[in-house]
Amino acid sequence: MIKIFRLKNIISVKDFEREDIEYILNEASKLENIAKSKETSEELKGKILGLMFFEPSTRTRMSFETSMKRLNGECIGFENSKSSSVSKGESIADTAKMIEGYSDALVIRHELEGVSKFISDIVEVPVINAGDGAGQHPTQTLLDLYTIKNEIGFIDDLKIALIGDLKFGRTVHSLAYALGLFNNVKIYLVSPPELEMPQEVLHDLDKTNVKYEKVDSIEKIIDDINVLYVTRIQKERFGDINDYLKIKGAYIINRKMLEGKDLIVMHPLPRIDEIDTDVDNTKYNKYFTQAENAVPVRMAILKTLIKNNPK
Amino acid sequence: MIKIFRLKNIISVKDFEREDIEYILNEASKLENIAKSKETSEELKGKILGLMFFEPSTRTRMSFETSMKRLNGECIGFENSKSSSVSKGESIADTAKMIEGYSDALVIRHELEGVSKFISDIVEVPVINAGDGAGQHPTQTLLDLYTIKNEIGFIDDLKIALIGDLKFGRTVHSLAYALGLFNNVKIYLVSPPELEMPQEVLHDLDKTNVKYEKVDSIEKIIDDINVLYVTRIQKERFGDINDYLKIKGAYIINRKMLEGKDLIVMHPLPRIDEIDTDVDNTKYNKYFTQAENAVPVRMAILKTLIKNNPK
Amino acid sequence: MIKIFRLKNIISVKDFEREDIEYILNEASKLENIAKSKETSEELKGKILGLMFFEPSTRTRMSFETSMKRLNGECIGFENSKSSSVSKGESIADTAKMIEGYSDALVIRHELEGVSKFISDIVEVPVINAGDGAGQHPTQTLLDLYTIKNEIGFIDDLKIALIGDLKFGRTVHSLAYALGLFNNVKIYLVSPPELEMPQEVLHDLDKTNVKYEKVDSIEKIIDDINVLYVTRIQKERFGDINDYLKIKGAYIINRKMLEGKDLIVMHPLPRIDEIDTDVDNTKYNKYFTQAENAVPVRMAILKTLIKNNPK
């Protein structure tokens, strides 16, 4: 098994090697009972996590808080830029240095790509990127991989379809990239022409062992895949609303499409209507499990970074 | 003594039997020292309470947080619908399932009646209704009864006057209903004609042992009662402001009215001007004690539900 | 050494005697390892701090929260008046009494001078003033003194320059007053004529051993001082923006001015541009250390007040 986690900060999936991912997934497994409230822990007793959410994100914020608190740690911070000192004209650097003075690690959410990296360069405590604009959301990718490993049993040899908005959806970019670190993965890309996977992501995938293929309908590949990974198509992405209405239905998943298939459905949430609620009470639904997996995975990350980098 | 609390969720006073109420009041008594910071506890160590406040309520939120924290538990959640994922278009059901994944119990506050019940039907952790619109606020009723029992010594044979807005005030509806589970209680109803107790509440009371009587002034009954339970009359309830100004004074409690009487004054708070501050430093004032009692009572509820329903 | 801290509340620097200050600085020293996350503590286990922030202040709020949590205590409260019950028409007195019922101590931030004092008169738990309008911010002064003592080694015989807005800056008023409790301190006052130290503060200083002197440029005294204490000049203070622009540059500190000098630079933060960022990575920069010192000092205050005044 892997003995060391090399990274001090979690900024981008591109910093990961396969062993880093396996280390976190393995730690997360060991923390399952604590995450699920079956055991208590004092692993991070007295430690404080600084949450710098320049833009709101209830789900991400609450799962980081839960992860810290299940390990007997505590949180401080702000939920949006209006309640930060930046609203008084303070620089992001000064704000980060102040919160660093109070905390053992920082979690950053910002609408601009690169802010987490910038902060990690000026503070000494570990920094975790919790989403920066169209950029990265690496802890989401780790919990996606954890869900795949737990539910399917393997990541090497995986066959996965990425559905919906592949152009702007940062979770599918990060996930595709991370899958490139595994062996013999096949990715099907299913999206409207307006929302295809960007050329630079495909270019990155070309350098890996991943095979990818664009397909124009879910039906064509639904018998071949282990995972259907659905993302939301925002109508704001379309200049003409009629273009949106025309294609919309082709990317909505319902129970009937899934019957008899051997696969799971994942979604980074929040869902609007791209998965019909009739899927919720079926064995295909793993999107709520995926959300719940945020806790053991983020616990593993917090524990590892804070223990490896004491103040 | 009662050995078991039957309910998994606290949604409505109408679900209570007398023994459920007595169970919680008895537990609350045992938790007094911890509530008052004289002893520490690890009863809910590592446990997490999910607070879903779709509308703000400082008092209720803070007393639930205090109750959880005095028992060494923790809280996550949101304080208003703007900071929930519902503001991004997520359904309440999905939001509740997400937070369920992180928590051991949920507390729901919503401006619409029935939301707590709806959520309790789709999640597996215990759900506590912390106020839904004109509907129920059952934990308020429990702390009201706890205050009566502690301060008067009995609930059977109680004589209580409900004063003020009996039409829209949900606390008086719930309290009247709960008193119907006890023996030989007499309720005096004192309100302007525009704000009388609704017919359906009276209809419910007719099925119980409670006797009730409408009276047109506080003076007539002030020598006969153990408890004067005051609620606020909002001027917005009156079409014509002059109607409000005419009646207003008749429902304001002051020190002079109370002198020489053997009773206590209660109020769910916040108070505006319906109890004169000259009552604050008298023996009649039990409204601040009542507010403080929120903690042992909510501690008893949280402890009971979370211990009885482990994840 | 000092054995007792006399005060129950921390309202104003004017309530301090030298021994009170020394008691807190000494306690803060002993708590350094816990503040810096090198040791854990259960000193305030089960205790709850009520934060009543009628106006937002991220830095002050987070450092109080951190201080409480490092000692294994917890916090409840509100961050701005909109999320308090005062927004529903409740009086500040009633709000304070409610939160008192849930907490072991209160921290008050309000835009009006005197609110903390008013609240301390009506509640029984200890009250800490975390800034009231143009009035006092006594815990800031304590952390300023702690920083001076740690970094310079002494407070008696100190030579300090106060720079910038000496008229409206409450931190410099409080600091000057507190320095009056020490021996043989010399204060240089450097400000534009529009923003000179108020006559009443100078009058207070005249009654102490402090010597003060107005000087019209930093250059004249920079070789003589131990501490350069910088505050921000807000352009809103000037009727004519041109007056502001004319004087602005004379009060900006940069690396070149400091080279070869034997002094430290302090600032209560947030900084806008009155200290050039080229000072950040020099030995002169103690403003980030000063911000970090908020934690041991506020820990010392919280521990002392809560332990000395059990509910």
Any descriptors?
homotrimer, 311 residues, alpha/beta, Rossmann fold, 2 domains, five-stranded parallel beta sheet, four-stranded parallel beta sheet, 9 strands
Describe what is shown at a glance.
Three copies of one chain form a homotrimer. By secondary structure, the first copy, chain A, is of the alpha/beta class.
Describe this structure in words.
Three copies of one chain form a homotrimer. Chain A is α/β, with parallel strands linked by helices and 311 residues long. Chain A has twelve helices and nine strands. Chain A folds into two domains: 13-136 and 292-308, Rossmann fold (3-Layer(aba) Sandwich), CATH 3.40.50.1370; 138-291, Rossmann fold. In chain A, 37% of the residues lie in helices and 14% in strands. In chain A, the strands form two sheets. The first copy, chain A, has a five-stranded parallel β-sheet. Chain A has a four-stranded parallel β-sheet with strand order 2-1-3-4, sandwiched between helices. The longest helix of chain A is centred in the middle third of the chain and has 15 residues, at 138-152. Chains in contact: A-B, A-C, B-C. Chains A and B meet through helix 3 and helix 11 of A and strand 2 and helix 4 of B.
CATH superfamily of the largest domain in chain A: Aspartate/ornithine carbamoyltransferase
Radius of gyration of chain A: 20 Å
**Helix coverage percent of chain A:** 25-40%
Tell me the total number of β-strands of chain A.
9
State the CATH class of the largest domain in chain A: Alpha Beta
What fraction of residues of chain A sit in β-strands?
5-15%
Shape of chain A: globular
* Biggest sheet features of chain A: 5 strands, parallel
Low-pLDDT segments, ≥5 res of chain A: none
Q: Whole-number average pLDDT of chain A? A: 94
- Biggest sheet: strand arrangement of chain A: 7-6-5-8-9
* Oligomer description: homotrimer
The helix/strand order of chain A is HHEHEHEHEHEHEHEEHHEHH
Question: Whole-Å distance between the termini of chain A?
Answer: 27 Å
**Number of discrete domains of chain A:** 2
Biggest contact: A-B, 29 and 27 residues
CATH architecture label name of the largest domain in chain A: 3-Layer(aba) Sandwich
Structural class of chain A: alpha/beta
CATH topology of the largest domain in chain A: Rossmann fold
In DSSP terms, counting alpha (H) and pi (I) runs of 4 or more, how many helices of chain A? 12
